[in-house]
Design brief:
By secondary structure, the chain is mainly alpha-helical. It is built from 8 helices and 2 strands.
Length: 255
């Protein structure tokens, strides 16, 4: 009489392995975005776009470098939502947020640690200049990630239900375009206005709301283009999860 051997604890099915990799990639993208988010970039447009809320105009795309990885997180969210369901997608969002909070706590602890007084060690001022000034942007990035991800998950489900599970490009791109607008507004408002209002610093006063809208609008313009450009990536990811991992999209939720 033969007895079946118990499965090894680390033995995961292909769908489970895919989910773990997607969750880790999402968390890594959030952490990278939070760290590099302190730097703002400016890409000249070569033309100007008038804005309805002021006398100025948009002449360049200006936003935080933290947004560079956010298109990846939204692609992951859409793929997980399609193949594993909205609860699994929310779980990844919460896990990524928890990892971000852990990193934030370690950053603050590192700042508080007594410095080794040695010429080869980084100065406390330089360390604080990077990690200290990044706190507001860090919190803003995590808030924007959570709100944007939950909005993306909700809208993706709505579009999937309305289209009966067809038109991958519509539910993926449509939900991402709307949710990244929410993301841009939240990260710009929290980082450049709310945080600086709550923790005032004469050197970095709160940005006027008109400038907040300008930063959010220019950042969203770039995200909009990236979302459209990422449409083929959605189809490639869909095909990979179907063929390599044996996954099938879940049926649209009735509500």
């Amino acid at each position: 009489m033969t007895t079946s051997q118990p499965a090894e604890a680390h033995a995961l099915s292909r769908p489970q392995k895919a989910y773990v990799w997607l969750a880790c990639l999402s968390a890594a993208c959030l952490l990278v975005a939070d760290v590099v988010g302190i730097k703002l970039f400016s890409i000249p447009l070569g033309f100007s776009i008038p804005v309805p809320w002021g006398d100025g105009s948009i002449r360049a795309i200006e936003h935080t470098c933290g947004m560079l990885t956010f298109p990846i997180t939204f692609i992951i969210t859409d793929l997980v939502n399609d193949f594993y369901g909205k609860k699994a997608a929310r779980r990844i969002a919460y896990i990524s947020l928890a990892m971000g909070m852990l990193a934030f706590g370690i950053m603050n602890l590192a700042q508080a640690m007594p410095r080794l007084d040695a010429p080869y060690n980084v100065s406390q001022e330089a360390f604080d200049a990077v990690f200290g000034s990044a706190k507001g942007m860090y919190i803003a990035s995590m808030a924007a990630y959570l709100v944007g991800s939950l909005a993306d998950i909700f809208l993706f489900g709505v579009l999937k239900r309305l289209t009966g599970g067809r038109y991958i490009w519509l539910r993926a791109t449509g939900s991402t375009i709307v949710s990244q607008f929410v993301d841009s507004v939240v990260v710009s408002f929290v980082a450049f206005h709310l945080w600086r209002t709550l923790y005032p610093d004469p050197g970095t006063p709160p940005a006027p709301l008109g400038e907040i809208l300008k930063i959010a609008a220019t950042g969203y313009l770039l995200k909009f283009c990236l979302a459209l450009a990422a449409t083929p990536v959605i189809y490639l990811g869909h095909g990979f999860l179907r063929v390599a991992c044996g996954l099938t999209p879940v049926a649209p939720s009735p509500r």
